[in-house]
Design goal:
The chain is mainly α. It has one domain: Orthogonal Bundle (Cytochrome Bc1 Complex, Chain D, domain 2), CATH 1.10.760.20. The protein has four helices and no strands. Helix 2 packs across helix 3. The longest helix has 18 residues. It is globular, with a radius of gyration of 12 Å. The two termini are 23 Å apart.
Length: 86
């Protein structure tokens, strides 16, 4: 099963990656840039596996660059408390 199949699994996965990045000293700006790149990749290269991902893709595709950065930043905030905080 892919982490993309279930939205809660996807949030847990992103939360884990966020905590790893923070643990390795990655700053907020770098995390934000990485989230933007991931969002762009997912919107253009990966088929949505569930309704939530389909909505995010549609929002991403109608957003301008500034709005896409805002979506990426909101996803980071959404998952900050998700995943293992090891």
């Amino acid at each position: 099963m892919s982490v993309l199949d279930n939205f809660d699994s996807w949030k847990d996965f992103l939360g884990d990656r966020l905590h790893q990045a923070e643990g390795q000293g990655m700053g907020d700006h770098a995390v934000s840039d990485l989230a933007f790149e991931i969002g762009n990749y997912l919107a253009t290269q990966v088929d949505a596996k569930n309704d939530q991902e389909a909505v995010l893709r549609e929002l991403w595709n109608v957003a301008d660059d500034k709005e896409q950065h805002a979506i990426a930043n909101m996803m980071v905030k959404l998952v900050q408390n998700e995943g293992n905080q090891a």
